[in-house]
Amino acid sequence: MVSPDPTSSTPGNKSQRASLRVALIGNPNTGKSTIFSALCGVPTRIGNYPGVTVEKKIGTYKDNQGEVQIIDLPGTYSLAARTLDEQVSVDVLLGRQADVPSLDAVIVVADATNLDRNLYLFSQVRDLGLPTILVLNMWDRIAQESIEIDLEMLKKRLSTPIITTAAARKVGIETLRLAIRQVTDCAKPEIFSPLPAVLHEQSQQLKDWMASKGVQDTPLPWIERLVLDCGNQGLEIFAKKHNLPELSAKIEAVRETLASQNCRVPTVETRVRYQWIRETLTDVVRRPLHERLTWSDRIDKVVTHRWWGLILFAAVMFVVFQAIYRWAEPGMLLIESVQGFVGDSISSMLPPGMLRSLLVDGIVAGVGSVVVFLPQILLLFLFIGVLEDCGYMARAAFVMDKLMTRLGLSGKSFVPLMSSFACAVPGIMATRTIENRTERFVTILVAPLMSCSARLPVYLLLIGTFIPSTTWLGGWIGLQGLTLLFMQSLGAMIAVPIAFILRKTFFKGEMPPFVMELPPYKWPSLNVIFHRVWERGLAFVTRAGTLIFCTSVIVWAASYFPADRTQIHELEANREGLQAELAALPAIEETSDESVRSQIALLDSQISALASEEMVLGGEAIEKSFLGYAGHAIEPVVKPLGWDWKIGVGVIASFPAREVIIATMGTIYSLGGEVSEEDEGLRDALNHAAWPDGKPVYNIPVALSIMVFFALCAQCAATIMTIQRETNSWKWAAFTFVYMTTLAYIGAWIAYAIAGNFV
Amino acid sequence: MNLADLKVGQQGTITQVVGDDTLALRLMEMGLIEGEVVRLLGKAPMGEPLEFAYRSSRLSLRKLEATRVEIELLKDST
Q1: What are phi and psi of A132, to 5 degrees?
Q2: Which has the closest alpha carbon to A53: A420, A410, A428?
Q3: CA distance A341 to chain B (A)
């Protein structure tokens, strides 16, 4: 514990300020996110640091002295920075990141069972000179693994407050909050770095030289990191910004001086720090003499086994996709009935006309048909969250690495690609963990082929409507689930040759290195998973509320105008009047009065006559709408795929965001009058859709052709823009769009041709 | 001899990590430094990558990366 120094400490100053700012940093897999959510709950702000691709995540909580802001820094093993992304953590910690004001303290989260390696990052952070708290998380596992840690001795040796936590069970969080208050009320701790004195002297000289050139206030620890981190991209930018062209040469000279004193950069840092860690932990950490296999190792024996590992992997994927289909059903039914209720309520309040049509056929039908897939999307994120948090994702990368190397990728590409199954945008952003440019770019270019959650609604709708619900083995294996599995894996299968070709053409070169930690298995933290599912669900709903809302309105307008619909609305009003009359009468089974019975029969026939007249007029009106003209114009192009002009329109409208097709179809069929009163929704409308000669439009080959098209096509503006941002080039964004769209057309054509021969 | 030469279950003491490039630095940052005792815990289904255990860490490397870490075989390792 750092004792407060009465002369230099200024308690009171900080409590007067609006809020405390504390950074949270730690190795991956130490439960840092669990601590973050235990402290602050849902983050108040998520965004990006400007100019780089690092996520900026900030949360807040209040204690009796006021507000505390927690800035979550990306999980890392080391502060050594080569890329601008890696430089962000150092800049935030030293108050040099323009959009984050300087910090009051930093919390280093360490895995208590793996202190040796975790103290490396701690020692780097502590050298920066901020008030530091060391959190030993997963403290409950110490006893389980018969490890003994002498906390008192460790506190003394590190002269740092140490808090033990078991964040998954919220143990130690209050103590941590108290420690944050205490440490920020104390004086800044003295830096006593294990790094050699010559480094500090040389860095001080650099600092003085920079000051003589008019560049003041560069913190010494920041300069030291510049010296230690070879090939740091930030150096050039800094030198340019401050007009210090000689800086590079100066730093090179410092490195030579260090090398001459047996302190060669970059190896000196790891050597010295690990030496310090060993000395620090002598007599502090006692492990069982005979290192037995932990239970985590035992699980690994099975999970990474030659055969069992692969079988388990396939089984996990299978269960995930089957479950998404089966478990979400009640939630979907609920949403569908809410949608029906809202639509009916509006209809009963407004007379037939443009406004009612906009609300019911445009907005409720459009947005509702997308929101209905929320339960399935939440389930998918739930599974991904559980697999990630329990440690299985790393094993999946381990098991899959050899296979991925055949494509010129690595197991590390596996996690970004796996995340792309949820959404290509975070998946592409997750490729930042891949250091090698070649590997990273190839991963980015094939990531949009992975079947994202926006494709799921399309598959679900078409499979649920057209694929027979045959099941085997007592309902455990179903044809629908198998088709879904096939559609979900199609993109991944196609990605194999694409990646291979890319590695042989645009991205030739050697295999980049592979260094990956396999974290111990643990029970997934419900808290962390809940937050992840919540964030993703919220993002999906927001999208449905904005982008899809707008598209729904536009598509509605394009299919409503310019045809004259006054006659249809009149028919509608008449029909509803008759329906109200009918509703006032008793049900036909409940009455024996002949006159009432004949009245009911008359009303029934009048209503159905009006309804079919509406349907015919509605169909004509939509053909004469803007959308109808566009659809007919492209019909020759999509005809070989088995599509009619309505599907063509749906596909055109869904290029900005593929899930829009559901909303578009909902609007087209609803406006076209093909969703009759008895039909619950789009599924029935599709079943009834027919070519002019009365042949049904949709059959299994057409459904497959549409699904294959959606599996392979780049219908997502957000993905294309993310590719542009991450590769910093429009060229690769355009390339992705063109190759995927071409692939989709060919794939859909083949699917239609092949399936047509069998069905 | 280096880490790639170990058989499953065997242990070795690190003598040095070869090179001072990014890969060498990353290996050292992960705690593969002189004097550390490393055991080959297992291999992935297709023979690669390899899973190594040292202290409480479990690290996976391909054979190519493992050859960068030179070791002395511990005789009594099983």
Answers
A1: -125, 140
A2: A428
A3: 53
Phi/psi at A334 (5° precision): -60, -50
- ipTM of the prediction: 0.93
Name the nearest CA neighbour of A184 among A106, A280, A85: A106
Cβ contact A354:A562 at 8 Å: no
For A321-359, give the DSSP string.
HHHHHHHTHHHHHHHHHHHHHHHHHHHHHS-SSHHHHII
Residue among B25, B45, B53 whose CB faces A306 most closely: B45
Q: Which of B20, B23, B48 is facing A267, going by the closest CB pair?
A: B20
Closest listed residue to residue A90, CA positions, set A128, A130, A48: A128
Cβ partners under 8 Å of residue B45, min gap 6: A304, A305, A306, A307, A309, A310, A399, A402
User: For tokens 């895995």, what's the residue?
Assistant: A111
pLDDT (average), residues A382-409: 83
What is the DSSP-derived secondary structure letter of residue B22?
H
In this prediction, residue A678 carries a pLDDT of 41
Give A48's DSSP letter.
E
Measured between CA atoms, how close is B51 to chain A, in angstroms? 8
Nearest residue in A to B40, CA atom: A297
Q: What digits encode the pLDDT tens for the residues A407-465?
A: 778 877 876 787 777 677 767 776 766 767 788 889 999 999 988 877 887 888 888 87
Which region holds residue A727: left if phi is over 0, alpha if psi is between -120 and 50, else beta? alpha
A6-10, A316-320, A361-365, A389-393: lowest mean pLDDT where? A6-10
Among residues A157, A149, A98, A108, the alpha carbon closest in space to that of A130 is found at: A108
Residue B49, min C-alpha distance to chain A (Å): 7
> Which residues in chain B are closer than 8 Å to A411, comparing Cβ atoms?
49, 60
Nearest to B29 among A78, A307, A519 (CB): A78
A676: confidence class by pLDDT, cuts 50, 70, 90: very low
Checking if the pLDDT of A716 tops 70, the result is: yes
For residues A250 and A256, give the distance between their C-alpha atoms in angstroms, rounded to a whole number: 10
3 state SS of A259: helix
CB < 8 Å to A306, chain B: 45
What gap in Å lies between CA A548 and CA A464, rounded to an integer?
Answer: 22
Quick check: A511 and B64 in contact, CB under 8 A?
A: yes
Give me the pLDDT at residue A22, please. Answer: 93
Using a CB-CB cut-off of 8 Å, the residues of chain B touching A296 are: 58
Query: Which residue bears the tokens 């730690």?
Result: A26
Q: Do A402 and B45 touch (CB under 8 A)?
A: yes
Inter-chain contact A305–B31, Cβ cutoff 8 Å? no
Question: Which neighbouring-strand residues pair with B38?
Answer: B12
Determine the residue among B28, B37, B56, B78 to mutate to test chain A binding: the one whose Cβ has the most chain A Cβ atoms within 10 Å: B56
Phi, psi of A19 (to 5 degrees): -150, 160
